[in-house]
């Protein structure tokens, strides 16, 4: 299963629902892996479509939205 969403629609999504998270340039099918659970195969993927000109610190903002309490340590640098 995979879910593709825009950066502006992250609210309401729970990180626990996904095994991997990718960020994708605007209107692209290719993404950069930013989160992967070590103990699970990548069956449930979230693809986040970035705006045309993403702001600096976008990945940190995604982490804050999906993992506000910083409970997961599987975020990639």
Give a description of the structure.
The protein is α/β, with parallel strands linked by helices and 77 residues long. The chain is built from 1 helix and 4 strands. A 4-stranded mixed beta sheet has the order 1-4-2-3, with no helix packed on it. The longest helix is centred in the last third of the chain and has 9 residues.
Give the neighbour order of strands across the main sheet.
1-4-2-3
Report the total helices: 1
| Beta strand count | 4
User: Roughly what is the average pLDDT, rounded to an integer?
Assistant: 92
- What distance separates the N and C termini? 25 Å
Query: Share of helix among residues?
Result: 10-25%
Largest sheet: 4 strands, mixed
- Given as residue ranges, the uncertain stretches (5+ residues, pLDDT < 50) are none
Global geometry: globular
Order of helices and strands: EEEEH
- In percent, how much strand structure appears in the residues? 25-35%
């Amino acid at each position: 299963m995979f879910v593709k969403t825009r950066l502006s629609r992250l609210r309401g999504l729970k990180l626990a629902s996904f095994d991997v998270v990718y960020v994708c340039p605007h209107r692209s099918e290719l993404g950069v892996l930013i989160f992967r659970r070590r103990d699970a195969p990548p069956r449930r993927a979230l693809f986040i479509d970035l705006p045309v000109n993403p702001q600096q610190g976008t990945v940190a903002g995604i982490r804050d939205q999906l993992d506000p309490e910083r409970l997961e340590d599987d975020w990639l640098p």
